[in-house]
Design a protein that fits this description.
By secondary structure, the protein is of the alpha/beta class. 47% of the residues lie in helices and 11% in strands. It has a six-stranded parallel sheet with strand order 3-2-1-4-5-6. Helix 1 packs across helix 4. It is globular. The two termini are 12 Å apart. Bound molecules: 1,6-di-O-phosphono-alpha-D-glucopyranose (G16) and magnesium ion. Magnesium ion binds next to loops.
Length: 220
């Protein structure tokens, strides 16, 4: 049976990907090359420094660690300015309703995000009170597809992995759920998230009743 839901943040509950993209694009422009929306797809769910490495490879640049840290900080300052202006209107369709549905049905709720800015986003959008546990990029050593972020979330909730479902928009996140021994629901397209137990276009297509049907179906 399902006792807990663990949510990725960016791309599942809020659309911060567009702000990450604007900030990375600006950094690329300052470094003298173009960074397309298609390039940006490769950064989804990836940590800040790993994202920078991908961006620099697009521009054919190799820089030393001190310079890279400075560039990542510059990008994060622009990004932080943008997320500082976020409010509840930027919660993705169906997300708030599904979080409420989970709580009303007695399911535990955790966040499992790679972002070090997760608390700012949760507070500005008013989502913080919906979570029993919050695991973000400030609390983990290994990034997805390593299962750490979800394993830590489940243990903080006191629920064993086989009773957990992960909601993710990134392939690396679905793989992290699998390695954690948890079920997963992909938010997006089956072409990239085919490894998930179920794929839906958005949380607007999700209810706790439907989640329980799927879990029951898998046991049969
Ligand atoms: C998010 C985004 C990634 C971003 C990462 C780190 O992860 O999907 O694009 O690079 O966080 O973010 P920050 O620079 O704020 O620490 P998630 O796991 O919420 O999808
Ligand atoms: Mg994501």
């Amino acid at each position: 049976s399902i006792k807990a839901c663990l949510f990725d943040l960016d791309g599942v509950l809020v659309d911060t990907a567009k702000y990450h993209y604007l900030a990375w694009k600006r950094l690329a422009a300052e470094l003298g090359f173009e960074f397309t929306e298609r390039d940006n797809e490769r950064l989804k769910g990836v940590s800040r420094m790993a994202s920078l490495d991908i961006l620099l490879s697009v521009g054919g640049l190799e820089l030393d660690d001190a310079v890279k840290l400075e560039l990542a900080e510059r990008k994060n300052n622009w990004y932080f300015d943008m997320i500082s202006k976020m409010d509840a209107s930027e919660i993705l369709p169906g997300a708030l309703e599904f979080l409420k549905d989970c709580r009303e049905n007695g399911l535990k709720v955790a966040l499992g995000s790679a972002s070090k800015n997760a608390m700012t986003i949760l507070n500005n959008t008013g989502l913080t009170p919906y979570f029993d546990a919050i695991i973000d990029g400030t609390r983990t050593a290994s990034a997805k597809p390593d299962p750490e972020v979800f394993t830590l979330g489940a243990s903080e909730l006191g629920i064993s992995p086989e009773h957990c479902v992960v909601f993710e928009d990134a392939e690396a996140g679905i793989e992290a759920a699998r390695r954690a021994g948890m079920r997963s629901v992909g938010i997006g397209s089956p072409s990239t998230l085919g490894a998930a137990d179920l794929v839906v276009a958005s949380l607007a297509d999700m209810t706790v009743a439907r989640l329980r049907d799927i879990a029951a179906g898998q046991q049969a």
